[in-house]
Amino acid sequence: MAKARPSDSIRAQGRPPRRRGGAARLADAIDALPDGFVLYDRDDRLVACNRRYRELYDYPPPEVDIVGMSYESIVRAGVEAGLFAPAITNSDPGAFIAALVTRHREATGVPVEMALANGR
Description:
CATH topology: Beta-Lactamase
Radius of gyration: 21 Å
Order of helices and strands: HHEEHHHH
Distance between the termini: 67 Å
Strand order of the largest sheet: 1-2
Shape: globular
Number of strands: 2
Helix content: 40-55%
CATH architecture: 2-Layer Sandwich
Strand content: 5-15%
Number of helices: 6
Low-confidence stretches: 6-12
Largest sheet: 2 strands, antiparallel
Number of domains: 1
């Protein structure tokens, strides 16, 4: 006699079998958000970001994997690539980077807007 598996009872109830894992569904949901989304771990390394986040900053190019990079490294690379408007970075790029890193670490929840070189 064959032993019934849990998936057999689910199919018997008319539900389709699970095809994708929870992590894949979560990644799809994050990517579908209309706003930019980014998540850093406790070591300040990027864990995930969605397509809209990358579109907003237009940096780095899609072929560059930024997962695992620190926030400071991402900001520094953005400054070096000319991502931010020159008016806010030219006087002292190091101070600009330090200010962004401090603001990021304090995470007060207050939105921050800044001019990008592409006019956004």
